[in-house]
Amino acid sequence: MRHESAIRQAVPRPLVDGFGRTATYLRLSVTDRCDLRCTYCMSENMTFLPRREILDLEEFHRLSRIFMARGVRKIRITGGEPLVRKNIMSLFAMLGADLNRGMLDELTLTTNGTLLDRHAEALFAHGVRRVNVSLDTLDPERYQTITRWGRIERVFAGIEAAQAAGLRVKINAVAMRGAFEREVDELIRFAHERGMDLTLIEEMPLGEGQHDRRESFLSLSKLRDMLSKRWTLEPLAVSSGGPARYVRVAETGGLLGFITPLSCDFCATCNRLRVSATGDLFTCMGNEGRVGLRDALRAGDDDRPVAALISRAVAMKPEGHAFSITNDHVEGIGRTMSVLGG
Ligand code: SAM
Ligand code: SF4
Fold first, then answer.
1. Which of 74, 201, 238, 264 is the most buried (most CB within 10 A)?
2. How much is the pLDDT for 244?
């Protein structure tokens, strides 16, 4: 009997929600701060959280271990801008060691790329092999307008350094009505000529007071139709497992992904969990529901109360997101994308 219960304890109990989906992928937003202010993401004057409310990097690691013990195999570090967080490489070092021990399959990063040149080699040394870099335009002036003050040369330098260090880079671009529709061909060429996949993201109504999303929103179903008049888009037989649907662009040989949360539902296969910088667990990016883990984490060394909260939250994961944009109505979520980092 004792032997059986020991075995039961050793085998991780997977995090299965009420709709039969198993969570194996955790995204950690390690800071709400950022060196940019992308118009679709943040307002110009942001008030950031006081430091004491933010988990320290050891707490993030402990939390990650608790999730790993419940079957999480992939961790993505995001933000805000994760690379502005002081000593962030020490978290990569701790998680990289877990990767080496076989406790994780993959450790990745989403970044705006402005500080990537400084960290590319260390990221590779800590086991990171793929990074997502956000870049919505190749035009320096438009980049500055979108990010409010960013310098595009920093991103180009970051991409170059990442590739030189051996990291595989994917470009993420938020599709917007207007200039983006004209520039997207150039972005495709830029990414594919450099061996990078490009993923287009539909703008999501997260956060208030940015701009009128009905004016900027560009449906990727429409954009895809437009692109298919100029490019040969060959649907891939196998899906990546994530929310993006990929095609191969025959003319370049590169992959082009579409993330369409508004015009096409991707919730049915969602395997993701997200933790904010304050230690709140969100089981769905498109809902307001959250479960705070920080107090339980700080109450002592016992991981079991934290694990119990995680189990309860996952059991209540909603079936799908709650936002939508139509011509005359925006149903959004109050928190900005920078709380969870995508
Ligand atoms: N700062 C990093 C970056 O920009 O990659 C990581 C965090 S950022 C919030 C993650 C991704 O979310 C970026 O690719 C960004 O373009 C995207 N994003 C931000 N606000 C968005 C919105 N309202 N709709 C769709 N994507 C958004
Ligand atoms: Fe910062 Fe990323 Fe948001 Fe832009 S999208 S403001 S880079 S967190």
1. 201
2. 79
Task: Say which residue, 97 or 284, is predicted with more confidence.
Answer: 97
Q: How far is the CA of 172 from the centre of ligand 2 (A)?
A: 12
At position 49, the amino acid (one-letter code) is L
Which protein residues touch ligand 1 with a CB less than 6 Å away? 34, 40-41, 78-79, 81, 110-112, 134, 172, 174, 201, 203-204, 206, 337-338, 341-342
Is 270 labeled as ligand-binding? yes
Task: Report which ligand 2 atom has the smallest distance to the Cα of 79.
Answer: 8
239 CA to centre of ligand 2 in angstroms: 27
Q: Tell me: is residue 264 an annotated ligand-binding position.
A: no
Give the tokens for residue 257.
Answer: 């992904």
Buried b (16+ CB within 10 A) or exposed e, 92-102: bbbbbebbeee
Query: What is the reported pLDDT for 342?
Result: 65
**Residue type present at position 145:** T
- In this prediction, residues 202-219 reach a mean pLDDT of 72
The predicted-structure confidence for 280-325, as pLDDT tens digits, reads as follows 999 988 777 899 999 999 999 999 999 999 999 999 998 887 666 5
Q: Which residue has the higher pLDDT, 236 or 91?
A: 91
- Ligand 2 centre to CA of 338 (Å) is 6
Task: Quickly state the pLDDT bin for 109 (edges 50, 70, 90).
Answer: very high
- Residue 44 and residue 213: Cα distance in Å, rounded? 16
Residue pLDDT, tens place only, 251-263: 999 999 998 766 5
Determine the residue type at 293: L
**Which are the contacts of 256, defined by CB distance < 8 A and separation ≥ 6?**
188, 197, 198, 199, 200, 227, 233, 246, 247, 248, 249
Cα–Cα distance between 271 and 280 in angstroms, integer? 18
The pLDDT of residue 7 is 44
- The residues pairing with 134 across neighbouring beta strands, listed in sequence order, are 172
What's the farthest any 2 CA atoms get from each other in the chain? 69
Is the separation of the CB atoms in 177 and 216 below 8 Å? yes
Q: Which CATH class is domain 14-40+50-339?
A: alpha beta
Every domain of the chain and the residues it spans: 14-40+50-339
